[in-house]
Every structure is written in C-alpha cells, then in structure tokens.
Amino acid sequence: MGIFVLSVGGSIIAPDKVNSTFLAQFLGGMKKYLEENSESKLIFVCGGGAPARVYQQAYRDVMGDEAKDANVQDWIGIRATHLNGELVKSIFGDLCKDALVIDPTASSIKFEGKVLVAGGWKPGFSTDTDAVYLARRFGAKTVINLSNIAKVYTDDPRKNPDAKPIDSISWEDFRKMVGDQWVPGKNVPFDPIASKLAQEAQIKVVCADGRNIENTIAILNGKPFEGTTIG
Q1: What average pLDDT is seen over the chain?
Q2: What does pTM read for this prediction?
Q3: Are 212 and 26 in contact (CB under 8 A)?
Q4: How far is CA 75 from CA 40, 46, 72, 127, 149, in A?
C-alpha cells in the first residue's frame, strides 16, 4: 500500500486543551489500519493548536506595537508543534522507533518503524509544508490534511453564508484562493507555500475532518470519503 503522510492539525490535537479522547480514537484507528495493511507506513506531521495560539498571543500582549517579528511568532508556534509531536510519538509506542522529525530535509532521518512523527521545522510556512517535504522524500503520492473542517469551501463559511463546499479543485484554482504568502497563524485549508511545493511535485492533497476516524481510514483505503481533493 505504500506510505501516506497525514498532516494532523493542531485544531484537533489541542483545540483548547489536549483532546485526549480524539488521540485515543486516532491511535486505535491507525493501529487497526496498520494491522490490516501490513505493507503500509504512516507519517504524522503535527500542528501547534491552542499552545501555539496562546503563546503567540502572549507575545503580542506583552510586546504590543513591538510585536512585529513574524519569525518570533513562527518559532513560538513551531515549539508548540514539537510538544504535540512528542505526545503523538509517545502514544504510538513501539510503532514509532525513530526520533521526532524537526527537519524534513535532514540526512539523518530514519524510518525504521511503521510510524514516523514530525513537528514544525523553521519559520516561513506551516507544518503543511513539512508534510509535503516528507511526502516528496519518501515517495508518498498523497498528503491527507486533517483538521476540524469536513471540506474546503469557496470562502470562509463563518463569514460568508453563500460559501459552497468543494469536492475537488485543481492546484491552480486552489492557489488563487489561498494566495502565495504565509502569515503566522494564517487560517487556510492548506498553506500557500505547501500548495506551491505540492503542485510542483504533483502530490495530491485530501482535506478532511480528522475527528472522523472512519472517514480517514476510508481515505487511506481508497474508498469513498467525505472531503476535498486538491490536485
């Protein structure tokens, strides 16, 4: 079955605090999938979630008008992804035999277990971009982007009641929606830098609600699912 990369959003790992119920369900679902697909391997790239937002906001609160350094805010968010990543790595136990990946381009990365877990790398993009780097490195053709939304919409449905869900969209059209610039904490379905890299590498991205474990397993198994396919 090969290798799949799952970009697991901080919005479902730690939406306001660590979502232990979700993590237990995710662990059970992924272990079941790996037991039934012995040739498969999974890479999980963890977002920052609430810890990232809370600490970035604290920086802005303290610094006020001086809180202009985007790199500083990115680094705070990156450290939050490392915290979440270590947690996810720990719960997978012996299935994850390798250290948390914090540089997807490092020559020292090993993938000896059935699961590899990564966090953020450096400023300038989100963990979506790390996911694409790892997909490219290990030959994965699909990145599954798991968040708290079921599909990509034509606009933000919280602000625009006329926004429509999208089942599939080309990279060209998707990139027109999200633009080309990264802003720390930017709320987009898949970050602009990752989108450019994925398009260049001809990697497909599926955006889906990661809280629906059975739906995620359906994506992995190539069965009908609810979500948006980009590419």
Answers
A1: 93
A2: 0.93
A3: no
A4: 33, 15, 5, 12, 25
Any idea which residue has 């090993």 for tokens? 110
- Using CB atoms within 10 Å of the CB of residue 139, give its burial: 0 to 12 exposed, 13 to 18 middle, 19+ buried: exposed
Amino acid at site 177: M
Tokens of 71: 């790199």
185-196 burial, b if ≥16 CB within 10 A, otherwise e?
eeebbbbbbbbb
34 Cα distance to chain centroid: 20
- pLDDT tens figures, 90-126: 999 999 999 999 999 999 999 999 999 999 999 888 8
Answer yes or no: are the C-beta atoms of 152 and 169 closer than 8 Å.
Answer: yes
Task: Please give the domain boundaries of the chain with CATH numbers for all domains.
Answer: 3-230 (3.40.1160.10)
Token readout for 36 is 């039934």
Backbone torsions φ then ψ of 179, nearest 5 degrees: 80, -170
- Measured between alpha carbons, how far is 110 from 28 in angstroms, rounded to an integer? 24
**Residue 167 and residue 171: Cα distance in Å, rounded?**
13
Phi, psi for residue 173 in degrees, rounded to 5? -70, -35
CA distance readout (Å), 14 to 63, 99, 173: 25, 21, 31
Task: For CA atoms 162, 210, 130, 119, give the dihedral sign.
Answer: positive
Mean pLDDT, range 9-27, rounded to an integer: 96
